[in-house]
Amino acid sequence: MKLKSDFLWGGALAANQCEGAWQEDGRLPASADFLPDAAHGRWNAMLHPGNILETRYDYYPSREAIDFYHRYKEDIRLLAESGIKALRLSISWTRIYPTGEENAPNEDGLRFYEELFTECRRYGIEPVVTLCHFDVPEALIRKYGAWADRRLIALYEKYAATVFDRYRNLVKYWMTFNEINMITHIPYLGGGLLVDKDDPEFNQIVYNAAHNQLVASACAVRIGKKINPNFRIGCMMAAGSFYPYSCNPNDVMEARISNNKNYIFPDVQLNGCYSGFARNYFAKLGITLDEQPGDDELLAQNTCDFLGFSYYSSRLISTDPEHLKNVADGNAITTLRNPYLQITKWGRQIDPVGLRVTMNDLYDRYHKPLFIVENGLGVEDTLEVDGSVHDPYRVEYLDAHITQMKKAVLEDGIPCMGYLVWGIIDLVSAGGGEMDKRYGLVYVNKHNDGTGDLARYKKDSFGWYAQKIREECYE
């Protein structure tokens, strides 16, 4: 059986990981522009940012990235050969409002995205646009401490209103924040917060900043629906259900608690209020949110239309001290090593069935359409002398996940709007700042040290995905 004809098969990219051109056409620096590569301690810089805006590193991978800013026309033309129906992109806030506080937007930035979205539509590709994808203007970090300050809400709403109005006839699908729950794990990347993981006020600062983002998200929904009632505006989370390590009831309960923590923010964005679990959790941690009059009504009346989510792996948790010793590097979210799963060099445990489990968990909780806006395999690829890249491991990974996604839709009855391969073109990894951790179906000739001519080469997985889309859509 096939999915519905309007299912959005496609891929995903993010401005700070692909565009480059970090100081061109009026753009000013943003949070990701100050993150070094893995060799210079990127993870440590995110977890212990200190005075990161003043620290000098040898190499900042986001500043050139894969130069999508200058190459987007050839890249869109290339991707169109695969037959994709949708391309997730994000807007760089500082291309539109360079400091975040200008009275008038930057016309060069507005024009760039207008041309980018128009180019997508020229090839029949639906843009799926994230307003804020790990992106905070440097000036707002310096002046306000980024999302720690409620004043960012009004600035974000102004930015959202500007792009909603400009692209009201070019973009239908929007998401307000990328992986909003990641602010509690990597707060500099998720919210531009200069807070140390070891700071005794860490939880207070991070959850209050997250509340500001949630209010801003609701403001964006409100203004977006006024500008174009046909907009579909979603939220987006880093998903992957926690499994209990065993049938010990303590393990089962610990998994439930871990999942509840992960759902705190989409609970607000989709249900319109904090859960009872969240309120009790905040009280337990001594967190007092800076909630202002009108916040509750705003959140309740401006919920999102769908839940976009990334899925790379399931998670595993236990209360047994012996089991807790066997931790896998879960890319920001700690997980135990699952003995039934293969694991990548970067600590991702491969669990296609976990995608189906996660989809069931999310739909059972929210009863709103799901949208898989990130799924992919980050591994090292080899460019052969003839320009070919043989990646059967990626084909196997994607095929297995698509199979489970289809089972969730066709057998479990879960509405799903689309499936987007993350990093459909190789790009800078968000966590490690690496190029050699490649997700793409298109190889970009650039390496961890910044060398390479940026030439693009189709991998074997590109042809496979094109055939998969043809089979699903036409045959």
From TrEMBL:
<dbReference type="InterPro" id="IPR018120">
    <property type="entry name" value="Glyco_hydro_1_AS"/>
</dbReference>
<dbReference type="InterPro" id="IPR033132">
    <property type="entry name" value="GH_1_N_CS"/>
</dbReference>
<protein>
    <submittedName>
        <fullName>6-phospho-beta-glucosidase</fullName>
    </submittedName>
</protein>
<comment type="similarity">
    <text>Belongs to the glycosyl hydrolase 1 family.</text>
</comment>
<keyword id="KW-0326">Glycosidase</keyword>
<dbReference type="GO" id="GO:0016052">
    <property type="term" value="P:carbohydrate catabolic process"/>
</dbReference>
<dbReference type="GO" id="GO:0005829">
    <property type="term" value="C:cytosol"/>
</dbReference>
<dbReference type="InterPro" id="IPR017853">
    <property type="entry name" value="GH"/>
</dbReference>
<dbReference type="InterPro" id="IPR001360">
    <property type="entry name" value="Glyco_hydro_1"/>
</dbReference>
<feature type="active site" description="Nucleophile">
    <location>
        <position position="374"/>
    </location>
</feature>
<dbReference type="GO" id="GO:0008422">
    <property type="term" value="F:beta-glucosidase activity"/>
</dbReference>
<keyword id="KW-0378">Hydrolase</keyword>
<dbReference type="Pfam" id="PF00232">
    <property type="entry name" value="Glyco_hydro_1"/>
</dbReference>
